[in-house]
Each structure stands twice: as structure tokens, then as C-alpha cells.
Amino acid sequence: MKLKTYQQKELLDVIEGLSAVYDKVRLVEPEECREVKLNPDGTLSEGAPCFCAWNSSQRCVNCSSLRACRSLQKVEKNETFRDNQYHVMSVPVLVQLPDEEDPVRFVVECINRAQGVERMNLDGYGHHQSTAPDTDENGVQVNTGNALYDPLTGLKNWDGFYRSVRERMQAEPDQEWVIIVYDIMHFKMVNEIFGVSKGDEVLCRIGALIRSKIGPGEECARLESDRFSVLIRKEHFGDTFSISASREIPDLIDSPLFHVHIQAGVYFVRDKSLPVFAMCDRAKIALSMIKNKTHLKVSIFDEDLMRTIRHEQYVISEFERALKDGEFRMYLQPQVEKDGRVIGCEALARWVTPDGKIIPPGDFIGILERSELIVRLDRYIWDQAVKTLAAWSGTPMENLYISINISPKDFYYLDVFTYLEGLIEQYKVPRAKLKLEITESVVMRDALKQLALVNRLHEQGYDIEIDDFGKGYSSLSLLKDISADTIKIDKEFLRETDNDVKSEGILCSVLDLSERLNMRVITEGVETSKQLEKLIRLGCHTFQGYYFARPMSTDWFEEMFQECEGILTGTDVTVNGDSV
User: Fold this and answer.
1) pLDDT (tens digit, 9 = 90+) per residue, 514-540?
2) Residue 19 — pLDDT band, cuts 50, 70, 90?
3) Rounded to an integer, what distance in angstroms lies between the CA atom of residue 285 and that of residue 86?
4) Fold of the domain built from segment(s) 328-579
5) What's the rounded Cα separation, in Å, for the pair 458 and 485?
6) pTM to 2 decimals?
């Protein structure tokens, strides 16, 4: 369901209109179980708590507004209050708050007495504190005193945390606060390897450790599973507080192969009227940016991070439509010999919007890789490459090859061998004209399985190229096991540094090694004649980079090849008139 976003004045008008139809209409924040007041001047203020609605001392059972907020769907429910029946319709909405770039979820509650009962004043609805003890369906008194606490760790649960945070902020309106959300990395493995009892012990000890770090008037909670959260005063915050837990728990698991690591997402509270769940969401967003990166322990939320998240969401949400509408295009970048003769090209993906704007690959490739959509894009580019090779048959370009990239996730979510063989059979293209570029990371994950597949592709007649050679850590050991035909030297070797002598020495060693192994070498990122001359002097003979040509559409590539008769002279790349 796509929710409509309301400006505050606009939503006030809607609520006023609904009030003529319903006995009571109110705006609620169901995660915190409180009413929200929209003021005519556009500000937001606290309303009465509704935690004790329906004669209960805990959250309403199966709360319709909470379900509506989380499902983003309208939810209707009948409730009994003071022996009267009420119909509650909960409608989720997005409200644009001042000084906030992203709208926040709220719920509009529309309440009516059941038909046949005269309309009554419901000002007290939702704020009734029952003096009688709670009872179950048989009238037996029940203890609900722990409804706000996690039974395992004894810390507050998310219900209790949200309420306590709101109370703290109201009690100290001038205080600056920080919310931290902690996550135990790979906690699922603790339960699977060491058992649930050990997992519970780890949760309890970490909960106790986190609780020991907070001061008077600060809060901590176990939000869910292996997620904990704290509210602390800004002056108490520091890196030591954020990461100290991970330093003090090495003995939780008695195993040399597994260690407990904690990561933290941090949000410095700017707007105290923001719902607490939204504050926690911002800390979780910061946390998501370092999840599974063991060398990073803390991530702090800021607006740049929010823009990054919004961009990621845009790319993921627009991908299917853009692919269907043909906005993703195959661009080709020439690969040339030292005399400028074009011998082939690399297929690269570009996103071209309807207005002609080209979205750089760095703005979407990484996102698609993390979301596994890269498999769909790679498959599309492979199709285009093989179709193009088939179209070049019988033309001056029929001797050219096209290199395609194979992402690590292609090997996990696709039968690469069968798919490529299907394309070759369909378009009747020689396998040697479709070169396969893989990175070291492709093979290093599940090495035996991936090496077997890569070597099988090589035996079938495909040329294998190792991309970004020298960028990883195991490239030399990889060469002895993999059947590869080409090494693509990473452009970092061409970057001028204080250690040019060492860089040149390493480059010479790689070129010498490739010659001994009878492997071809392509150097990427060539941008100047100075770089080209140096590489030729060192013994490199095949190049790719802006010096010869930038990536271009298939039509432009074909036109360029015809005009220059397959020979490129090259031009130095310049910035502000200076050579790069």
C-alpha cells in the first residue's frame, strides 16, 4: 500500500472533516501508545497516553492501530469499553514534520459507538486508568506488572523503552540525548552451534553489561532478539561507551573459532517530538551501514547517511521498471594494442534516464550487488553482448571480442555455465569471442566449487580474465589453481605515489610472471601518453582507458570503429586544462 503524505495543516483539515462523521477522531503514535496533537502553527505536541485504554494496565490486545502502522494497511476492530461496544478504524498516514526530510508514520483512529447506541462524549476514551486489578476471562486476577519488561534479561522491552524514553524527554526538556542500538553479530550461529541455553546466557550477560554502563535517569532495553538499545545523556556519550561492550565479552564463548562482536548504531536526538520508534529507526539505519563489517564497531546517523539510504531505496524500487523500460544500456569500452589497433571491448552497464541523464555505475552497481539484483542486470548485459557479437558477424567488426563481467553472486543465484551455453547455442557465437571477467573474490568464496566451475568454463572454450589483479590479497596463490588466460592489472598501479619505484618494480614482476605463465596482460585506467609510454617500456602491450576512449553506446562504438578503421590514436585526459 502506498501511503499518502500529508502536510500538517492538510491533515488537520482531514481530521476535522472526519470528526463530523465519527464520535471521535484522533491521531496516534501506536508504537509509543500515545496521542499526538497537530497544532495549527504546524508544530507537533504530546497528547495523552493511551496505554491504559479499554480498562487495561497494558497495551490493548491485538491493537488495531499498531497493526495498521506496521502493515501499512487500514485495520478495523470492535472493542468493548465500559460495557459499551465501539468500532475502531485505524488508517496509517505519513506526516511531513518541520525540519525533517522524511515523513513519519502515524495512525488516524476513527471511533464510533455501535449502531443503536446514542452518540456520547468520548473525551475520556483511551485515557481511563482502571483502579480495579486486571482479571482474565474467568475473572481471576492476573499480574501485568512485567508487561513492559523482557522476561529473559529483566531489561525493559520495546514497549517499556518507548514509554520511558518519552517520559525522560518530557521530564528534562532541555537535556540533549543520544539513542544507541546494539546488534550482536552472527548471533544466530551462537544458538545453532552452542545451543539455545548458551545463547540465552550470552543475551543476559550482554544485557547486564549494557545496563552497567548507563547512569541515573538513563534507559536501556532489549528491543528484540539480539538487539539492545540505550538512551543516554549526550555528555556521557563517547566511543568508549559505544564499543566497550565488545571489549569486555571475549570470554562469553569458549571457542577459538568464534568470538562475540557487538556493533552500534548511534542517533543524536535533534527533534524530541519525533516518535521514539523513528529515533530508534535512525540508529538502526546507521547500524545497517556497517552490518557484517567486523572491523567497524560504531556508525553514527547523519543526514548524509539518510540521503544514502534514500538513494539505495530509490535504486532498488526503480530497478525492475527501469530494466523493463530499457533504461539500462550496454556500453562498450575499447581494448587496444600498443599501436592503437582495437581488438575487442568490455561490456559495461549504464543507467540512462528518459531525459538522457546517465547515472554513474558507482551510484547503482554496489547497491544492486548487495540486494542481489545484480544477477538480473548481469544476465541482461550478457544477453546484449552475445546478440551484438552475432550482429557483427560478416561485418568489419566480426573479429572483435566482448568481455563480460561475472559478479560473485551470479555463481550463487544462477547456473552460469548452463546460461552462457544457452546464449552461445541460441546466437551461434564462437565461445572465444565472449571473454569472462571474474574478480578474485568470486573464487575465494567457496574456492573449490568456484574453481571447478571456472576451469570447466575454460575447458569449454571461454577465455577467462582475472579482473582487478593486485587489488586483493590472494592473487598469486590463485594463479596456480585457476585456468585463466588474461590478467587485468588494476589502475591503482598507474596512480602516482611517493613509492613509484616500488610500484614499477611490482608491475615489472607481474608482467614477467604473466609471460612465464603464458598469460596476456591488459592494463586498465590508462589516461595519458606518459602512462602509455611507461607501460610499453615495461612490456605491456594491451590497454584500456580514457586515453583511447570512454565507454560508449553500441551505436557509437560501431560508428567510431568504422570512422577510424579500427585504429585509435589516443588523447590525454585533462582536468581544467591540465593532464591527469
Assistant:
1) 888 888 999 998 999 988 998 998 888
2) confident
3) 38
4) TIM Barrel (3.20.20)
5) 9
6) 0.62
